[in-house]
Design brief:
There is one protein chain. The protein has about 170 residues and is α+β, with helices and mostly antiparallel strands. The protein is about 30% helix and about 30% strand. It contains 4 helices and 7 strands. Strands 1-2-3-4-5-7-6 form a 7-stranded mixed β-sheet. Strand 4, helix 3 and strand 5 form a beta-alpha-beta unit.
């Protein structure tokens, strides 16, 4: 089941996002740091009603942010659509113990369906340039790679921006 996250679930979400970060770093992918994603970021996501969780048998094992706010770093990207009625995916994560079971696909299906129902023109996101697995995941879902942005506190390497049009 996918539903809105609750504030008291932030410690559990941090547990598995930190585990995701550690697993990526073990594979040489320095996308998430021990400081990111943070408790503060998740609290703000919940406050805005943008954090969703995947719950299975009473346990939260996945999360995704579906936001209407465009990050400043995205301003210079040449997007496929105008900057209006877009949605942005952030912090998609599945507990490493549950990966490979289609949960990330389900979270993305949910986000794409919800964005379209809200009247969004497109979904935009970024993923780390050194994370070919994520790039393939989004490209298989029909996302187009457009440009790159930098988050110097996370990595000196770029993050590739992607967009998928969700309404005709």
């Amino acid at each position: 089941m996918i539903r809105a996250a609750k504030v008291n679930e932030i410690p559990r979400i941090l547990d598995f996002t930190q585990a995701c970060g550690a697993a990526m770093r073990a594979r040489g992918i320095f996308q998430w740091t021990p400081e990111y994603p943070s408790r503060y970021a998740f609290a703000q996501d919940i406050k805005r009603g943008e954090l969703w969780v995947y719950e299975q048998e009473g346990q939260v094992i996945g999360t995704v942010v579906l936001s209407s706010q465009m990050d400043e770093e995205y301003q210079h990207v040449r997007w496929l659509t105008e900057n209006r009625a877009n949605r942005y995916i952030h912090r998609l994560a599945v507990d490493p113990a549950f990966q490979g079971r289609g949960i990330a696909q389900a979270l993305m299906d949910f986000a794409e369906t919800r964005a379209a129902a809200e009247g969004a023109v497109s979904i935009r996101l970024d993923t780390f340039s050194r994370n070919s697995r994520n790039q393939h995941f989004y490209e298989q879902r029909g996302y187009t790679r457009l440009g790159a942005v930098y988050f110097p506190l996370q990595s000196p390497y770029p993050f590739y921006c992607y967009e998928r049009i969700v309404t005709p």
